[in-house]
Known about the structure:
The complex is a heterodimer. By secondary structure, chain A is mainly alpha-helical. Helix content of chain A is about 60%, strand content about 0%. In chain A, strands 1-2 form a two-stranded antiparallel sheet. Chain B has two domains: about 15-70; about 75-110. At the A-B interface, α1, α3 and α7 of A face α1, α2 and α3 of B.
Amino acid sequence: MASANTSTTAEHLIWKGGVQPMKVGYGKLMMWIFLLSDTFTFSALLVAYGLVRYSFPTFEGLRKSFEFSNAWWPIPERVFASVPFLHGINAPLVFVGIMTFILIMSSVTMVLAVEAGHRRDKADVEKYMLWTILGGIAFLSSQAWEWSHFIHGSEEGLALADGTKIFGANLVRNEYGPAAFADFFFFITGFHGTHVFSGVVLNVLIFYNTANGVYEKRGHYDMIEKVGLYWHFVDLVWVFVFTFFYLV
Amino acid sequence: MAQHTESGEKLPSQTKEIWRTFWILLGITALEFVIAFTVDADLYKWTKVGIFIILTLVKAYYIVGIFMHLKHEVKSLIWTVVLPCMFVAWLVVALIVEGGYIGWERLFFIGK
């Protein structure tokens, strides 16, 4: 097979038909197509969020007089204003900022692992894959804290007109705003978190294979590139979630 | 493309562009925080929203273009990915506007 191929393209990148559509290997192209379909799924969530959010009234008064109520959509920076170990301190969006930094950083170590794979430097691939896995686990832990804090809520809670009080959030009602607010928080960050989790699993798998010399024997580190695409996609989705759920 | 080092010697790493992209992404995120806490949200709400959306798209460009390497792929692959996303962007705008109407109807016919 290799003798028929006179181009400079590496043999493992040629498809079985003898050509190479779009100048990428089969696996990488299919990863792109999969990510495109995943984009549609996440878009469906963001589109639904946008529609429901703008069907609810916004708070009419000035920002500094904002109060939580089930009658209007909350201002996100008032909801997400806590950081672990700093109880009672108002730090709007700081923790989400740290989570964003963790994910961008792990994206960088992933692309460094891909670059090391191009050089077929096994030790470097291992090193950067470990950092990437660590970043993924750190992000998931942060999200677990964020969810726990969101579910348990504040000490004051929200007083309703009939005198009862709501603390924290579930799928039926919450102390921050309309039920749909917490529902979208759970679904969007939960669906993203599931992606991060499966990304970590894939990262562990390819780290294991790298350490066992599977890719060294195969002669190329293309698998790192394919999983890398998935990992960057997870980072990309977070960039959009950060803007549209937390910032705007 | 994989460079073959049969002799086993180490090739120099090429990480300049990666770290440059990292600093750009970090800088943009920091800028978003500065804007979020210094610009008055009561007066400039929609200006802020506009700036955030533009900065998000810039970040997306760097992640997809450099980290996912799409910038250096062939044109047909670039458009395969970008074109469907442009239709999605249209859907987002269309349904947010629609959401506004739903809220208006609810306010007038149900009164809450």
